[in-house]
């Protein structure tokens, strides 16, 4: 089977919107390329359509080599949705390439996860849960789906939400979101036991911040927690700081509410 491209836009760019495409930039004179090529072809044959292989002879397609900054070959790039998602240069053993592919390839459930993310943004929590539970029935280790399901559960069953993310590795791409969910769940548990909070002139503001957060009134919650920070920064083991960081990470740093409060948070914290 020939994997050589005929039309890069069609064979790689357009195709990658449906199936990830691994592109092997090579040349006839390159001895390492001749070692790597058969390994990639064997892996492609075993992939069962999960991803496809395309080969680009850099001597024939010099303009593509220049466009993608090929300075050394073999150079292997993974295209997803028209863009380079990951790459490596040089020869690697087959098992190493398998591990690289496992980490680099998008989940085959990415369309369902994108749908769930859209449903969450529309506050259609039950619909999002149904989609995510379907994904997890087929791939229980899918951390993206686990974090999104925990997000959907957080304000109705925070204990279950925390349980869903408790074993996500600190090295995971989803660790920050998982930490935010865990912290917010801990704050909700604290809200049930406010009698354990130390007496202070900021206790009332802190409790109100917890109540606002529980009602998903993030703007007001951040205002209250920053007020606590400005008066008693270390109150209850820096709980207000932890709450602010968790909300920022839960919403995302680019969210308008995060952007609105980030400067006040920083200036108060480092005053």
Automatic annotation (TrEMBL):
InterPro entries: Thioredoxin-like_sf, Thioredoxin_CS, Thioredoxin_domain, TPR-like_helical_dom_sf. PROSITE patterns: THIOREDOXIN_1 (PS00194), THIOREDOXIN_2 (PS51352). Keywords: Disulfide bond, Electron transport, Transport. This is Thioredoxin. It comes from the Bacteria. GO terms for biological process: response to stress. GO terms for molecular function: protein-disulfide reductase activity. Residues 1-106 form the Thioredoxin domain. GO terms for cellular component: cytoplasm. It comes from candidate division KSB3 bacterium. Pfam families: Thioredoxin (PF00085), TPR_19 (PF14559), TPR_20 (PF14561).
């Amino acid at each position: 089977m020939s994997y050589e491209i005929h039309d890069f836009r069609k064979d790689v760019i357009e195709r990658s919107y449906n199936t990830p495409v691994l592109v092997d930039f090579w040349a006839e004179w390159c001895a390492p390329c001749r070692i790597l090529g058969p390994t990639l072809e064997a892996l492609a044959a075993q992939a069962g359509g999960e991803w496809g292989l395309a080969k680009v002879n850099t001597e024939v397609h010099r303009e593509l080599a220049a466009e993608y900054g090929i300075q050394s070959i073999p150079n292997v790039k993974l295209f997803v949705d028209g863009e380079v998602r990951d790459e490596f240069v040089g020869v690697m053993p087959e098992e190493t390439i398998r591990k690289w592919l496992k980490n680099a390839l998008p989940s085959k459930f990415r369309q369902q996860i994108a749908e769930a993310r859209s449903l969450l943004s529309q506050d259609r929590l039950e619909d999002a849960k149904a989609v995510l539970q379907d994904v997890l029935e087929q791939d229980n280790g899918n951390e993206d789906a686990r974090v999104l399901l925990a997000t959907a559960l957080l304000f109705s069953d925070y204990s279950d939400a925390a349980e869903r993310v408790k074993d996500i590795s600190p090295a995971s791409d989803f660790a920050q979101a998982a930490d935010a969910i865990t912290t917010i769940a801990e704050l909700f548990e604290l809200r049930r036991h406010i009698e354990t909070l130390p007496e202070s002139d900021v206790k009332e503001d802190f409790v109100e911040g917890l109540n606002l957060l529980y009602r998903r009134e993030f703007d007001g919650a951040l205002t209250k927690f920053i007020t606590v920070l400005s008066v008693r920064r270390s109150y209850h083991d820096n709980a207000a700081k932890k709450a602010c960081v968790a909300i920022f990470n839960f919403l995302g740093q680019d969210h308008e509410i995060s952007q609105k409060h980030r400067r006040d948070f920083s200036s108060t914290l480092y005053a």
